[in-house]
Amino acid sequence: MFWCLPDNSKCEWRKLEPFVNQYNILYKVDYKLSECLDAFNNKEPQPEIKLKATGEKDIVVEHKIITWPPNYIELHNAQHLFMDFFIEAIRSEFPDDIYVLDVNSLDIIPNKRTLQNWADKIAKIIVNNKIIIKINGGIHSSEPIKWAFKRLPTNERDEDVPQKGIGVRINGDLEPFDIDNFQSESIKIREDVKNTLISHLGKSSIKFKGYKNCVRIFITEVHGEHLLLSYELIEELLPLINIPSNIDQVWVGFPEWISENDFITSYKLIKDCR
Fold first, then answer.
1. How far apart are CA 32 and CA 24, in angstroms?
2. Nearest to 233 by CA among 207, 194, 274, 178
3. Measured between alpha carbons, how far is 246 from 263 in angstroms, rounded to an integer?
4. Which has the closest alpha carbon to 93: 164, 163, 160?
5. Which of 122, 164, 190, 201 has a CA between 20 and 30 Å from the CA of residue 143?
6. Torsion angle of the four alpha carbons 260, 266, 268, 273, in this order, in degrees rounded to the nearest 10
């Protein structure tokens, strides 16, 4: 499932505040942030945050991301970098309407210099063909990678799209769907995600050792573009795993889409070991 990764700030509170809000509503409590534990204690492994509420047991939370492929974060960041380079190169060239550049996600590589070069080359081609674009509505090319630039058709616009500006869409694989490859890839993904989940649970268990008087919560999210990657996969795999005895609850985060281009992160309790 493709959805933007959480920010990489040192303290997890900004990422986990929506979870705490949902937890408070579900259990009718009022937990608030007490400490960002691992941000200020480097002597031994620590959970990421501690929560406190009047009359309730303290809670400690460990939050882990599962990605596939394993370098998905690097690839995802490269996509954002390419978008930033392209927008900066062409920002002032088409002020009359809304235009969009479409590229294939498989073509984007995590190399800053190459991405800058590609973005500049594509922008230069587009600027040099501005009149053709205004007349025909768009152009496309395979240099330096496959891309298409066009005025965004009315039927592709929704209420969230601005009236003027330039956007970039990073699309999935444009080749016809390969069912044989999908099935073999799904087997590998399932095994890789399971092994990563086991590893994350084990490392979280070590961090929870000094907190036996707290509710110890493990939260995970799955990020990637394969159709198999969703919170349902974690629900399916968890019963096949021995959960460490000092983990009280396992939650999984997932995107709840509120429009075509915007979502909020929701959380589901998938195991309560208390």
1. 9
2. 194
3. 33
4. 164
5. 164
6. 150
- Which whole number is the average pLDDT over 188-193? 93
Domain ranges of the chain: 13-71+178-272, 73-171
Residue type, 129: N
Residue 140: name the closest of 122, 164, 124 by CA. 122
* Per-residue pLDDT, 178: 62
In whole angstroms, what is the distance from residue 248 CA to residue 241 CA?
15
CB atoms near residue 62 (< 10 Å): 26
Q: Print burial letters for 216-235: b (CB count within 10 Å at least 16), e (below 16).
A: bbbbbbbbbbbebbbbebbe
Q: Mean pLDDT across the chain, nearest whole number? A: 89
Read off the pLDDT of each residue in 136-146 and give the average, rounded to a whole number.
94
Token pair belonging to 236:
């399916």
Residues 134-147, mean pLDDT to the nearest whole number: 94
Cβ partners under 8 Å of residue 42, min gap 6: none
The torsion defined by the Cα of 13, 15, 16 and 18, in degrees rounded to 10, comes to 120
